[in-house]
Amino acid sequence: MQHHPGVASKMFRLLAQAGINIKLITTSEIKVSCLMDVKHAKAAVETLHCGFALESTS
């Protein structure tokens, strides 16, 4: 994250658009962590996976 500005804001926007409420956020220069209800865990992972295009290999 240190060399990629905007990652955290994109993550928060994607989760908000998916209707996933973040209860707690912690950040550092190299990572961002969020706490949410367990019922939203799968949707959050899928949302972020697609939102950051992690399915592509390039």
Features:
58 residues, alpha+beta, Alpha-Beta Plaits, two-stranded antiparallel ribbon, 2 helices, 14% strand
Strand order of the largest sheet: 1-2
CATH architecture classification name: 2-Layer Sandwich
Largest sheet: 2 strands, antiparallel
For CATH, the homologous superfamily is named as ACT domain
In the residues, how many domains can be counted? 1
Mean pLDDT rating: 91
Question: Can you tell me the residue ranges where pLDDT is under 50 for at least 5 consecutive residues?
Answer: none
Shape: globular
Tell me the number of strands.
2
Radius of gyration: 12 Å
CATH topology: Alpha-Beta Plaits
So what's the CATH class? Alpha Beta
Any overview of this molecule?
With 58 residues, this protein is of the alpha+beta class. The chain has a single domain (7-51), classed as ACT domain (Alpha-Beta Plaits, 2-Layer Sandwich). 38% of the residues lie in helices and 14% in strands. It is built from 2 helices and 2 strands, in the order αββα. The protein has helices at 7-17, 41-51; strands spanning 24-27, 32-35. It has a two-stranded antiparallel sheet with strand order 1-2. A hairpin with a 4-residue loop joins strand 1 (24-27) and strand 2.
Structural topology:
Layout: H1 7-17, E1 24-27, E2 32-35, H2 41-51
Antiparallel strand pairs: 1-2
Helix pairs in contact: 1-2
Summarize the structure.
The chain is of the alpha+beta class.
